[in-house]
Amino acid sequence: MNSELENILEKVAALYMKYGVKSITMDDVARELGISKKTLYQYVENKNELVEKVVDYVLNKKDCEFKMISEKEMNAIEKLLEVNMHIIKTMKEYNPATEYDLKKYYPELFAKLHSVRKERMYQSIMANIKKGKEEGLYREELNEEVIARMQVSRFMNINEDDLLTKNDLQRSEFIHELFIYHIRGIANEKGIEVLENTLKTINFNNYL
């Protein structure tokens, strides 16, 4: 992907996240980018193609971000806390209208987004549980598949819970507690000790 197109997709993704997808026209995009519609159409044929490219761009960007975390030299609990902080940052910019518009007006793209997210999350949780067991931080008797599926379901369906509001989902404390709850549920005594010691070293005021 060339840098010009990447720059366009990054800015359009920010527009979609702020205002939703349906309300943003190609005129809005061109105006925001400071280019003519003619120039914009050199990169995409229409809005449908633009939305598709933005979805692919976001998926690839998130993949790169989580790979960077997975490659860091940290134990399993430290990695989960790192992911926790990353998601807190992401959710502060989250707008349910964006996914609502995708689901209603671009169902195939929404299905793709949902499927990729679900599979990545599942594989990530499975890998983390295995790593935690190898490091002696998680309970040996854990059924990795069951725990991974439960955690994926919890996060993927959180928007459908009528007990939760948009403000709940964007509250840093809410997301943080979900992660701590998960870690405490799978960690053994040694893991709990590592968790407590690690929490003391992180200034969560920068995130919460």
Radius of gyration: 19 Å
> What percent of the residues sit in helical stretches (DSSP H or I)?
over 70%
Low-confidence stretches: none
Shape: elongated
Tell me the total number of β-strands.
0
In DSSP terms, counting alpha (H) and pi (I) runs of 4 or more, how many helices?
A: 11
How many domain units? 2
Output the CATH topology of the largest domain. Answer: Tetracycline Repressor, domain 2
Proportion of strand residues: under 5%
Q: Whole-number average pLDDT?
A: 90
Judging by the overall fold, what is the CATH architecture of the largest domain? Orthogonal Bundle
**SSE topology string:** HHHHHHHHHHH
Write a structural description.
By secondary structure, the protein is an all-alpha fold. It folds into two domains: 1-54, Arc Repressor Mutant, subunit A; 72-206, Tetracycline Repressor, domain 2. It is 74% helix and 0% strand. It contains eleven helices and no strands. Helix 5 (76-91) packs antiparallel against helix 7, helix 5 (76-91) packs antiparallel against helix 10 (172-186) and helix 7 (107-134) packs antiparallel against helix 8. The radius of gyration is 19 Å and the shape is elongated. The two termini are 35 Å apart. The model has no long low-confidence stretch (mean pLDDT 90).
In brief:
The chain is mainly α and 208 residues long.
Task: For this entry, give a set of tags.
single chain, 208 residues, mainly alpha, Arc Repressor Mutant, subunit A, Tetracycline Repressor, domain 2, 2 domains, 74% helix, 0% strand, elongated
